[in-house]
Specification:
The structure is a homodimer of 442-residue chains. Chain A is α/β, with parallel strands linked by helices and 442 residues long. Chain A is built from 15 helices and 18 strands. In chain A, strands 7, 8, 9, 10, 11, 12, 13, 14, 15, 16, 17 and 18 form a 12-stranded mixed beta sheet that branches. In chain A, helix 4 links the parallel strand 4 and strand 5. The termini of chain A are far apart. The mean pLDDT of chain A is 94.
Chain lengths: 442, 442
């Protein structure tokens, strides 16, 4: 029997508890999967050693100082599950400096400090694994980094935030308002008390940054990923979209382009998008995650599963531990050269989304007066955007008298041109509230 | 720069041509993915060296005798793409005996001779990779063997035969008869001139046998996998199912069970199944493949993509070559112990499907006479099967006078009990043609 792989958990909240459960309950199974090498929990680092916990951990393994783990020669892997980018970064860099492999579920940390962490890991000859950082139990990291290695990825469209998807599903299927759907998500534990990072697109943007590093070699700064959250989506938008045959989903998207001279570019953004009801991503309900990946050789492939939660995320963490025990992860780490110095790996340039061509959904609240529709159409025509369809219903409850919602679906245009047109529309005297618009994926 | 990985293609038909294209057109990309090790085509073995081919292969590489490849010290990997189980087996065993790794897309070969091939590979210290053998471009092999390694798989439901799925989609969406849909599939190149292995479930059964080896450690004999094809599905079955809210798909299924004393069991079968319209697998259209995998830790995950074709399958073959060049595949091969001797790896026992509980769709052509429905209901009641709903429409064109279709949906029962009941129904004097029945997945 080989020397066991010693594991230290730093952080024993939801996911950590799941990992500890798997390691203790399924030790024999895991030894079978590694070809005979046991995976053994050596240390559990927590903030409060006395707090009662669900974790089935012998009390002797618990400590509060992470250097107890990083200085233990019987520990080969440090699993960072505390979240955030300050103390977590310290823990990860200390582990690397001590020659320990790292497994992390921390997308914010990778998005912010990937280069520093991976450079340190290469220097110290250890691997960093992060299957759990994106889409919980869905093996999207391995898929991009290993399975599709024959391909250049040309597009990614992901439902990467389960909270937002749960809210949008509740609005679409239960006819709820955004506020009620959010409260329901909080009641059921799908949303935090402060849901900002989930519903404003930040969490999805962190995950997209990680996927884009693997697929395109880019290291986007926070400002490089445009993000639009779901808080501006009203119940009427869900209804209008449905009437037109579409479902609204918060998507994290990457679109590569090789058009024109110069290097290839990739546009990255997180935004609500109208998808046809029959689209695979439109079918993804509740807290599930799904990622459509387009490769230049394989074509379209789709990966779906639970995007968060104790056991799905722990499944991915333990999968990484098995890879380290087998020796696979070390090879992948060395070959993939992720977050490496410029020039070490071919990289795309990050382009703004302005040149991405799309159709658009534009929803306005307009005064019920002659000439308003003509003015709106003129603003679109000035940007050479043609109109595909128009819906104008009678005024509804909750709107001031003499205003009505007006929905316009456009033909294809560049995003930048559409935004210019929408800004002009917003300045018209007949427009009561700021224009709401989403791109449409056909 | 490391020593190149030398590759020999044995067979240069559709998939081989795709592999040769990728190796020649994307050499730089692949060297980047392997961490610096080029992947180089050294030999191409074909039946007819003079046949004009789309393959971009220097004529000097072409030979007709596979031992030219297996005896070439510059060849490290033999890619077997000839299909069948006779000559292909010879090629694979010769390659292994000569110390070459093997990459194959041949599910029939693995299903029939997996143990012999893997035993030989272990003896000679080489790896056998087969991502392309199941579901074309969908990375389901890596997913089961690596990504979900923390889990015991508890169920697999796969649309694994694109030809059948194309035919069923055409019947459902185009209102075609089975015969017309098959002709359309042949016209478009989705079905062979002799489509037997695709439409009778044999091809899907080979693929299920491969997946079941990874997930459950079982090595099913051909008779261990019950198979029912799609040729018995009539247009009216598609319509009745639709009326009830279901889509008919040909599924390859594995259901594990730990109930009762003794070892865990797994039931394996290929059959048409009624899926709710909203089910993810029901949405899979045309020649696509999709696999729902349930793990005891991660829960439900789904993988979808092109199930066949030159480039998707070549994408998987080249992914395996990258894994071999990086060194990952060798670790996976050693740790996974696939097709190993009994006792080396915990294995399920294969159980017949009789104990699998399901609802059923039963469609009969009955004489329009008093008492027939009562007799049918009695046969079901004798097996303690209760009826959920009944549809009886007026007689339709094409049926002899005084006969009508009768559709019964049952509540849950054991498959064996339902089959007994259906056999009894088939003997009733009021039943004009053999009962048609499919299980219903709710």
């Amino acid at each position: 029997m080989s020397e066991p792989l010693g594991v230290a958990l730093v952080g024993c909240g939801t996911v950590g508890t799941g990992v500890a459960k798997i390691l203790s309950r399924h030790a024999d199974r895991l030894t079978g999967r590694t070809g005979g090498r046991p995976i053994v929990l050596r240390r559990v680092i927590v903030r409060d050693a006395d707090k009662p916990r669900e974790c089935e951990v012998p009390p002797g393994l618990i400590a509060t100082d992470h250097t107890v783990a990083t200085s233990d020669p019987a520990v080969h892997v440090v699993v960072e599950l505390i979240g955030g980018t300050t103390h977590a970064k310290r823990v990860v860099l200390d582990a690397i400096a001590a020659g320990k492999h790292v497994v992390t579920a921390n997308k914010a940390l990778l998005a912010a400090h990937g280069t520093e962490i991976f450079t340190a890991a290469r220097k110290h000859g250890v691997a960093v694994c992060f299957e759990a950082a994106v889409a919980g139990g869905v093996p999207i990291i391995r898929t991009l980094a290993e399975s599709l290695s024959a391909n250049q990825i040309t597009a990614i469209q992901g439902i990467l935030n389960g909270t937002s998807n749960f809210i949008l599903t509740s609005m679409a299927e239960g006819g709820m308002s955004y506020d009620d759907a959010l409260k329901e998500a909080q009641r059921l534990g799908y949303a935090e008390a402060d849901p900002t990072l989930d519903v404003d697109g930040s969490d999805a943007a962190h995950k997209l940054a990680v996927l884009a590093q693997i697929a395109f070699g880019v290291t986007p700064k926070p400002t490089d990923i445009e993000r639009q959250g779901i808080a501006g989506i009203q119940a009427m938008d869900i209804r209008f979209a449905d009437e037109l045959g579409y479902t609204i989903k918060l998507l994290a998207e990457a679109w590569a382009s090789e058009s024109g001279p110069g290097p290839s570019t990739v546009a990255l953004h997180v935004a609500p998008v109208l998808l046809r009801h029959t689209d695979m991503l439109a079918q993804v309900r509740g807290a599930y995650n799904a990622i459509l990946v387009v490769g230049d050789i394989v074509g379209e492939t789709l990966y779906q599963g639970p995007g968060a939660g104790m056991m799905p995320t722990a499944s991915s963490v333990v999968g990484d531990l098995v890879d380290l025990a087998v020796g696979r992860a070390q090879h992948t780490f060395a070959a993939a050269k992720l977050w490496s110095a410029p020039g070490e790996r071919p990289a795309f340039q990050i382009a703004p989304s302005e040149k991405v061509r799309s159709r658009f959904y534009l929803r306005l609240i307009v005064k019920d007066e002659p000439g308003t529709l003509a003015d709106v159409c003129r603003c679109l025509a000035d940007q050479e955007i043609s109109i595909s369809s128009v819906i104008q219903h009678e005024a509804q409850d909750g709107h001031p008298e003499k205003t009505v919602p007006l929905v316009i679906m456009t033909h294809y245009s560049e995003t930048g041109q559409f935004r210019t047109a929408a800004a002009a529309v917003g300045k018209l005297t007949g427009i009561v509230s700021p224009p709401v618009f989403f791109s449409v994926d056909d």
